[in-house]
UniProtKB/TrEMBL annotation:
InterPro entries: Prot-tyrosine_phosphatase-like (IPR029021), Tyr/Ser_Pase_IphP-type (IPR026893), Tyr_Pase_AS (IPR016130), Tyr_Pase_dom (IPR000387). Residues 130-162 form the Tyrosine specific protein phosphatases domain. It comes from Pediococcus damnosus. PROSITE patterns: TYR_PHOSPHATASE_1, TYR_PHOSPHATASE_2. It holds the Pfam family Y_phosphatase3. This is Protein tyrosine phosphatase. GO terms for molecular function: phosphoprotein phosphatase activity. Belongs to the protein-tyrosine phosphatase family. SUPFAM superfamilies: (Phosphotyrosine protein) phosphatases II.
Length: 263
């Protein structure tokens, strides 16, 4: 099939390939292995045939149980559906959040606002981490050539954006590429990229505002990165400690999803 970043899905939302991105070690992400998307409930019969022919084998649904009950994913032959709800966040503070709060209290004299920011919670909260761990376990199972995993939420931009950030980081994709892929949601969903000002402007970070926001912005992704750096001293430790991925697991992921660049 033709290699294209945005798949020709008629009734899906923000349906994209992660194949073709270069990695730091000189390889590229394989095509027909990693897909990201918004909700799938409105896929047409033709869309489902296309995805079946494309090799879609695993559907990791990052939405809440409530969202899934209202708009369940369709059945596609040979596709396994996996629920990995990022929301709701747990009410208890895991050690990673406590470390982050300690860091903020040390730096600032006022009450920190971190616990109201969903992007930071998505990478630190126990319940959200469990969802992303499920995604990585599915990725390790997807070991056949030309068979794909799709991970998605509702709009395919926030929860899916964090999932893509974690997966691409695990595969060694440079940060600039990860950020460009993250911002691509704005172009796919609304036809144009936001200005730099709108992409980085401070917004109300309440969960419902995030879900309703038209654009993704780099400030949100940077907040998640900062939380990982503070609580885990970097993405590699995060993948080991929060995602329970061993060096062997990370090497296997690279074996499954990357290849030497073709001349």
């Amino acid at each position: 099939m033709e290699k294209q970043r945005v798949l020709p899905i008629k009734s899906g939302l923000n349906f994209r390939e992660l194949g073709g991105y270069s990695t730091k070690d000189g390889k590229t992400i394989k095509w027909q292995k990693l897909l990201r998307s918004g909700y799938l409930s409105v896929l047409t019969k033709e869309d489902k045939h296309y995805l079946s022919d494309y090799g879609l084998r695993y559907d990791v649904d990052l939405r809440s149980d409530y969202e899934i009950s209202r708009n369940p994913d369709p059945h596609i032959p040979e596709m396994v559906q996996v629920t990995a709800s990022v929301y709701p966040f747990t009410t208890q503070q895991p050690s990673s959040i406590k470390r982050w709060l300690k860091h903020l209290f040390h730096k600032e004299t006022h009450e920190p606002s971190m616990l109201s920011d969903p992007y930071q919670l998505m990478v630190l909260d126990n319940h959200a981490q469990t969802a992303f761990k499920k995604l990585f376990q599915v990725l390790l199972k997807n070991d056949q050539p030309d068979e794909s995993v799709v991970f998605h939420c509702s709009a395919g931009k926030d929860r899916t954006g964090i999932a893509a950030f974690l997966v691409l980081s695990a595969l060694g994709v440079p940060q600039e590429t990860i950020e460009n892929d993250y911002l691509l949601s704005n172009q796919v969903l609304f036809g144009k990229m936001p200005s730099l000002k709108s992409a980085t402007a401070t917004k109300n970070t309440a969960l419902d505002r995030m879900n309703q926001a038209r654009n993704v912005n780099l400030q949100s992704l940077h907040l998640a990165e900062q939380a990982i750096e503070t609580s885990y001293q970097g993405i590699t430790n995060y993948l080991h400690e929060a995602m329970n991925l061993s060096d062997e697991d990370l090497n296997q992921l690279k074996e499954l999803y990357t290849e030497q660049k073709k001349v």
